[in-house]
Amino acid sequence: MEQTIFLKKEQHQLKTDLHFDFCGISKTLPFHSFGPAIRQNYILHIVMEGKGTYQVKNQQYHLKKGDLFLIRPGDSTFYLADGEEPWMYCWLSFGGSAADEIIRHSQFKDDQYTMISSDIQKYIDVILACLPFAEETLENELHLNELTYRFLAALLADGGKIHLGEQKIYSPLAVETVEYIESHYADQLTVEGIAQHLAVNRSHLSRVFRNHMAISIRDYILGVRINRAAFLLSMTDESVEHVAEQVGFNSLVVFSRMFKKLTGETATTYRKRMKNEDFKNVSLNELKQKLEKQAIVNRAT
């Protein structure tokens, strides 16, 4: 559960080598989690306060104020706020043909995912500067793209160091199951069907998966679908019914019930909440006050 201020670019009018997608700031509650989820573009998070963990591939990272963590396109990731000191973080998402090359020149080269920054304020300042440009105009798109270049220039100039994670050993069967679900979540998946595809006993598969992932296969599939649906609701104007179909639900009624159960709000309410307010000339302290007054909601970012 979290409180969030969010700005997204509805559509790109220009084809550029680097473009802005969305940014935001979240104040999370204890044990707030996001994922497992796969993103289509890069997202760089900056931990502003508190602590949490970030899991990607077979690595687990314990992060605190001053740390950065990168989500790469196509990677399944999961992150969790600390139970006693939940984190507050901000983030910026970007894509384009130049994004890979820029990341390769940063501290995140060679498949690195986290780092300790020498100065997080420069990233925060750029994200705050993005918030006033919510209106969908070509001029604002240019401003947001320019700020994305500035954001990544700060990353290249950052004198911080790589943050090493802990090796987390998963069962190869659990990893295969995750990969299969992430690739086929829109299909009519069943535990029996997955077991047949992997040529293993259904009971054995269920037991191994729960032991390694601390969640049932059915609940994992549901989490992946709802997280993907939340992303589509926030980033597109597609109908709720179409979003439900894209993430594997045949019934809008069932999708609506599951979305409400997992997030605490309806899909329509979630989409409306993600519509940005006017944040011109708002300071970080003022944003924190807005977050304090905001209703608490489940998974958003």
Automatic annotation (TrEMBL):
A GO molecular function assigned to this protein is: sequence-specific DNA binding
Domain of life from the UniProt record: Bacteria
- Where is the HTH araC/xylS-type domain positioned along the sequence? 175-273
Ordered alphabetically, the record's keywords are: DNA-binding, Transcription, Transcription regulation
Which InterPro entries does the protein's record reference?
A: AraC-bd, Homeodomain-like_sf, HTH-like, HTH_AraC
The record ties this protein, via PROSITE patterns, to: HTH_ARAC_FAMILY_2
What this protein is called in its record is AraC-like ligand binding domain-containing protein
